[in-house]
Design a protein that fits this description.
With 94 residues, the protein is α+β, with helices and mostly antiparallel strands. It is 30% helix and 27% strand. It has helices at 3-16, 28-33, 84-91, and strands at 19-20, 37-38, 43-44, 48-53, 59-64, 70-73, 78-80. A hairpin with a 5-residue loop joins strand 5 and strand 6. It starts with a helix and ends with a helix.
Length: 94
């Protein structure tokens, strides 16, 4: 492997080891606003999934770093990041 490729691979691997606390993620403030609790630990890597629960038995999974940032819900539905707040507002009746 050439030196440039090796340096790139080392930098890539190092970046993929970075930890991502839930509090820094795009979905955190939205879901906290509507009474959800995150039950996931901080995640490592480029692709991460965080799980949230609500006292009314709603569950929302948020994935980031894949092909796009998206969510899915046990109450039906899924969407890209920009539609999350609309969905949780509807299912929590706020």
């Amino acid at each position: 492997m050439s030196n440039d490729k090796q340096e790139f691979q080392e930098a890539f691997n190092k970046a993929d080891k970075r930890m991502h606390p839930v509090e820094t993620q795009w979905h955190y403030k939205i879901l906290m606003k509507y009474g959800f609790t995150c039950i996931s630990e901080p995640q490592e890597g480029f692709v991460r999934r965080y799980e949230y629960t609500h006292p009314n038995f709603h569950t929302v999974l948020c994935t980031t770093g894949a092909n796009a940032d998206y969510w899915s819900s046990n109450r039906g539905g899924w969407g890209y990041w920009s539609t999350l707040e609309e969905h949780v507002k509807e299912i929590t009746n706020v």
